[in-house]
Write a sequence for this structure.
């Protein structure tokens, strides 16, 4: 388990805003067909434990893209991200489809956003199902676009004009899926633990 410190820009809005960009690729749909529509859902989370300087901090999470393209060179997805204008972006897994591991859609996305945003990623069950060669390609792609790949590890987020910080943790998807995943976690626990005395955010596919 490791941690590192990274400075991010400050926003001035109310509460921690967790903005989730999700694909309508959930549950039963995953077994039949891809839904090529983007769905944007916004959650506002308030806590007395959140440092005051993180008031209005935006986290935008993107998941379950499954190697899909949304507009030429991901233009629709990038437009959606820019409209939210988050403080950080987190890729929550299944960005690549293990059965059709195309990397160009991901590279198109990263090339369009990496210079404007700080990006973190975790693995989902599809990333874990990739071949060694494809998983190595994924890691190299993340590295080339300065994406921090959190694999059962955490990073300390701080604001440029404040000494306050919070912890962002990323957990690897378990080696089993569906109901077995709950049993696996219950038996083996998670790969990370919260930092005492700090506000902790845990990312899990």
């Amino acid at each position: 388990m490791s941690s590192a410190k990274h400075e991010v820009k400050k926003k001035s809005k109310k509460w921690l805003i967790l903005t989730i960009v999700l694909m309508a690729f959930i549950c039963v749909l995953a077994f039949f067909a891809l839904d090529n529509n983007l769905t944007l859902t916004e959650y506002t989370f308030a806590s007395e434990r959140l440092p005051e300087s993180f008031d209005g901090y935006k986290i935008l999470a993107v998941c379950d893209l499954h190697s899909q393209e949304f507009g030429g060179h991901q233009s629709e997805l990038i437009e959606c991200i820019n409209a939210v204008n988050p403080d950080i972006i987190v890729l929550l897994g299944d960005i690549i489809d293990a059965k059709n591991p195309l990397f160009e859609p991901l590279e198109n996305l990263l090339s369009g956003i990496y210079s404007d945003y700080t990006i973190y990623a975790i693995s989902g069950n599809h990333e874990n199902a990739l071949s060694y060669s494809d998983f190595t390609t994924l890691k190299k792609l993340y590295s080339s676009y300065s994406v921090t790949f959190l694999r059962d590890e955490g990073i300390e987020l701080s604001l440029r004009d404040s000494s306050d910080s919070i912890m962002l943790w990323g957990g690897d998807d378990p080696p089993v899926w569906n109901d077995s995943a709950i049993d696996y976690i219950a038996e083996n626990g998670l790969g990370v633990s919260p930092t005492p005395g700090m506000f902790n955010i845990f990312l899990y596919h």
